[in-house]
TrEMBL record:
Protein name, per record: Uncharacterized protein
Family from the record: Belongs to the UDP-glycosyltransferase family.
GO terms, molecular function: quercetin 3-O-glucosyltransferase activity; quercetin 7-O-glucosyltransferase activity
Amino acid sequence: MTFPTQDVADKLGIPRIVLFPCCAARLLFIHYVARKDPFTIETGTVPYEQISTSLVIDAITSKERREEVFCDGIPGLPRLLGKDLPHFKHTIDETHSLWEFQIESWKACNSRAYAIVMNTFKELEPSTCSLLSEVCDVPVYDVGFWIDLLHGESSTSIWKEDDRCMEWLDQQPASSVLYISFGSTTILSKPQFEALLHGVIASQHRFLWVLRPGIVAFDQNGSSLLKLIALIDGMQ
C-alpha cells in the first residue's frame, strides 16, 4: 500500500490497484485516523477526544491502557480496547514513524489509486465493507480470502528463504519442534530477546527460531544473535 509506487504509476499514466492484505476493519480504522476533517470519539478515559496518531500510539504503548476502552461507537467498527488497535510491535519511535508512513500511504491510495482490493469478504465484515465503499474516494472491492491461492512454491516472505534447516527438521520426531517467528517487521528489545532466549532454552524443547538481521533493536554488530548461537552450541 506504499505511496511511492503511486508516484511511479502517476508518472507513467498506469492505473494502480492497491492490494490491502489485512481486514476491512483495520483499513477503516486507518481511514478514521487519516481523515482531514475532525472526528470526535468517546473514549473510556476522556469523555471526548479527536482521534489522532498520538492518541492511538499512547493506547498501544501504555500498559495501563491496554485493557481500557479506547473507543466505542465509531461507525462500522466494534467497541475497541487499547490492545485491539493495530500495532507494529516496534519501539515507540518506530511505531510512530510507521503509523505516519501508513497514513500517508492511505491518503495517496484514497485519492489517487484506481481502486483498492481487500483480503476479506462482505459476509465476514458486512457493515465495515459497506461503510468503506461509502467513505472512500476510490472504488473498494472485497475479494478475499486469497491465502488459498498460495500453494506449491509460492511464498509471501520478503526475505530470501533459507531451507538448510529442512534436513534437520525431517530428522526430528513428529510434533516435537517449537517454531518461533516474529515476522518481517517486529523488533525486540535486547531484554525481551534475552528473556525469550533463556526461556526457550530452559524449556529443553527442540526449537526452530527464524532470525533475521535487525530483529534486536540497536544490535548493530549482531552480539545478541552470536549469544544465541553460543548458548545453542553449549547445549549440544
